[in-house]
Amino acid sequence: MKTIMRLLSVFSVILFLSVLSSCERSDQLDSGINPFSNGGNERNIIVVMSDLHLGANLAYAECNNNLGALERMLKKIKAAPNVKELVIAGDLLDEWFVPANVDTYQGKDQADFVKRIAATNKGVITAINSIIQDGKILVTYVPGNHDLTITAENVESIFPGINQARDTEQGLGTYSPAGCPTIAIEHGHRYNFFCAPDPISNQDVAPGTILPPGYFYTRIAVLHVMQKPSTPADTVPLVTRNASGDVSQYLLFIYWNIWNKALTTYMIANKFNEKIILTNVDGFTGTYSVNDLLPYQTTAGGLIDVNLYKGIQDTWNQRQALNHVAVNIPIAQAIANVGKSSESDYQATNQYFLNPNSDKRIVIFGHTHDPKMIASNNYNDQKSIYANTGTWIDHNTVATTTMTFVVVTPQSTDASSQTFVKLYNFENEVVTKMAEDSLRY
Length: 441
Known about the structure:
Purple Acid Phosphatase, chain A, domain 2; 15% strand; globular; 14 strands; alpha/beta; disordered N terminus; 5-stranded mixed β-sheet; 7-stranded mixed β-sheet
């Protein structure tokens, strides 16, 4: 009897160790691809993710179903002995993706809103904080447009000890990891007319605001997602080009076209004169209608005007200077291409690789949700690599995939060593390599 009990006891231990081993293996990548291994013992890998879009309410947050996979991926990163740094390149927290008729702060303030995001996404927040507290992997945050106005203090409040790579201007940041001065990581929104900080417009109604028109665009689009109307309740009043040929008026006409396309695509169940857009965010206190954002004219071919963002078509160059855009983007191009991910790709090349004042050879953006890798030659005819991290939202309408990230393995002192840039996907919790390239700088 004792022998049987002893055997059963041994069997139980073996079973327990087997289960424990199985649990440990579940934190490893079992697809045959381990993106976090360099084949050695050195801790030098840089993982770049972006566009997690963590929201305060899962009824409309863009990242909901993918939260579990994201949490498990973060645990894999923490366990990886070769990872040196995790960079989250913007849109970590989402202050924009809120239906127009919802009070974002629920009568409170941004600090409370950020705490609600932390509570709603507890597993992911805990996983990130676990990496920070472990101290082996540096976690760096770079601001994006959806977390444009979220302050450093409020980010620190839920991620104590996180490294924040910020410009002196709120809502912007460009980051080069230690030892990698030729790498630039930023969200990419500073080059987008609808998404770059706008500290010029609307100061009469919202003193100190930096919210660009993309904020209101997003609030309306989320209302569309929630309402799902089969037919629009209203149509965009027609605006025609001003007959005077005035350049500013022509630019405002292009701006109207962007709004016309948006409101045709994201139709809502409200009349455009209804005061439905609740603010109380970043200096705004009023409740606005769609018409407050739409350029309008009283007679065909006559003067075009707009209520909110009045004169925005004339301040783009000033905005670019304030936002430290290195190479000027023509205003007509900036307005017309606000919705094209290809414009963001082009700006990565234009602002860095074709700019004689830049020494960057690898540039990583987020923002567009369009994961990709593009190699080109810079102004010195040297190979350069641009990568976009994509996104972790549930439904990516821009690309066919979601749950994507970039891994950079820096070169060593060996003259034959290369810096590798790899783009991966984690859909269905299976790692797939989407693209790979390398260079030596």
